Design the sequence.
């Protein structure tokens, strides 16, 4: 028997949980709501209601989203027969925490409220101890290596940007190493697409800032399908050429529309939306394989996407953006 | 002293029950896991998922029926054991093969179809009929296998 029956129970639960995702008609109502308060009322009809009991004001919406993300991760991790798959996605919390801790230490700013508890793979106390003692031996090898490099570099000069760049690279190197061992094409495909789209965005940003190749090399994430050398070469080329180079690849639609809009409006908002939609479209295929871990991952990512959508709406509502402008930024939904 | 032919016939009876039974056990197990997941989140789905879970169970019954037919025809029930020749024994053994293996595989595949059906009604409870139809389609091949086994067994001259 193939061990495809490992996921049956979890996928059964996920099938029901998917029905509780916020659907597009509720999103629509939230966008059309006359103010943030009314938008939150729509949210109260969904499974977010549980986190809204002791909400002081609409400005605390972030608390709801955080609580929901935590709930989903804890829930999914509990039911998942192969937790290492969830660990792939939870790694960002570990790295986020490490970034916050390192920056707090060297920039003397206390941002403890930014730390994420319980959902990461590494206990927060372990990270705290590692940073305060400058002893990273309890951390996974690639994280440790990056952290040691940063501490070393900080003896000469404190550069907060290095923390972000170096740790992001370490995180994706770690993720791709794990993906190699997991051998699940759906997951490798997702992270490859994600890093590619992120790298293209990084290229555009750095080009705009007029920074050099050395900096771009530091900022590119490893192991996408588009090689780093190619992106590095394109840094000095005009936008049209970059567009041409990418227009025949798999990301043609995202790149064309995204970069053309970027040329006109000078913002990457459209590109970011298209890139997210592209990824959501990709993970939708998870629904077709009911006997593997795909639907569980699909749900997790759908939930993250949903939280992102709600955040965009709430930010828009609080800043009283016109409905049209919010709609432009909205991502597609999973269901 | 049992004749060699008789031994083969009994192996046939055992194989029919054994393989079809294994298939059904796996099939029902698959659907059960999927259904447990759905019911954990939504207890109202118990009735319709139970219906789907029962479907891959029929192959085991077909195997049992065939096995029973064999031991009845060779006279194990009733006490007048027929002294089968080797040819007769082998014929009985092979007559049991359609339901043994047709049952084994169709039960597993039906289990998968029914498990998918369970996921479907998790989202669209009103479509339970369609989910059942999809799973029942697989039943055709179990029934064909059973038919072949039974007809052969009835007409083997013993």
Sequence:
């Amino acid at each position: 028997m193939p061990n495809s029956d490992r996921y049956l129970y979890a996928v059964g639960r996920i099938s029901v949980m998917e029905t509780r995702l916020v659907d597009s008609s509720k999103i629509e109502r939230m966008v059309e709501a006359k103010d943030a308060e009314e938008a939150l009322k729509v949210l109260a009809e969904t499974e977010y209601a549980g986190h809204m009991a002791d909400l002081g004001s609409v400005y605390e919406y972030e608390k709801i989203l955080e609580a929901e993300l935590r709930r989903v991760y804890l829930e999914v991790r509990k039911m998942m027969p192969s937790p290492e798959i969830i660990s792939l996605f939870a790694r960002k919390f570990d790295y986020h925490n490490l970034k916050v801790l390192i920056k707090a230490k060297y920039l003397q700013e206390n941002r403890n409220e930014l730390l994420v508890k319980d959902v990461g793979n590494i206990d927060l106390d372990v990270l705290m101890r590692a940073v305060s003692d400058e002893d990273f031996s309890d951390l996974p090898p690639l994280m440790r290596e990056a952290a040691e490099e940063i501490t070393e570099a900080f003896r000469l000069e404190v550069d907060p940007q290095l923390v972000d760049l170096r740790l992001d690279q370490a995180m994706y190197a770690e993720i791709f190493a794990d993906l190699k061992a997991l051998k699940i094409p759906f997951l490798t495909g997702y992270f490859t697409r994600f890093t590619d789209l992120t790298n293209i965005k990084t290229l555009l940003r750095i080009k705009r800032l007029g920074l050099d190749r050395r900096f771009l090399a530091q900022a590119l994430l490893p192991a996408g399908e588009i090689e780093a050398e190619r992106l590095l070469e394109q840094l000095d080329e005009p936008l049209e050429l970059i567009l041409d180079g990418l227009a025949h690849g798999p990301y043609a639609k995202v790149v064309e529309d995204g970069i053309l809009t970027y040329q006109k409006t000078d913002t990457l908002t459209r590109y970011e939306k298209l890139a997210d939609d592209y990824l959501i479209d990709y993970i939708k295929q998870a629904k077709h394989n009911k006997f593997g871990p795909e639907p569980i991952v699909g749900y997790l990512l759908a939930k993250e996407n949903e939280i992102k959508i709600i955040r965009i709406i709430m930010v828009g509502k609080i800043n009283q953006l016109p409905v049209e402008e919010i709609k432009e930024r909205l991502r597609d939904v999973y269901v | 002293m049992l004749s060699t032919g008789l031994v083969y016939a009994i192996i046939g009876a055992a194989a029919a029950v054994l393989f079809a039974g294994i298939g059904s056990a796996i099939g029902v197990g698959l659907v059960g896991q999927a259904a447990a997941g759905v019911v954990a989140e939504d207890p109202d789905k118990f009735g319709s998922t139970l219906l789907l879970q029962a479907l891959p169970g029929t192959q085991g019954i077909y195997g049992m029926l065939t096995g029973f037919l064999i031991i009845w025809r060779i006279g194990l029930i009733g006490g007048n054991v027929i002294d089968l020749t080797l040819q007769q024994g082998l014929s009985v053994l092979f007559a049991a093969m359609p339901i043994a293996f047709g049952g084994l595989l169709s039960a597993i595949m039906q289990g998968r179809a029914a498990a998918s059906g369970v996921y479907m009604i998790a989202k669209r409870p009103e479509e339970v009929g369609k989910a059942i139809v999809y799973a029942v389609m697989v039943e055709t091949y179990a029934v064909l296998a059973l038919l072949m086994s039974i007809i052969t067994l009835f007409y083997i001259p013993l």
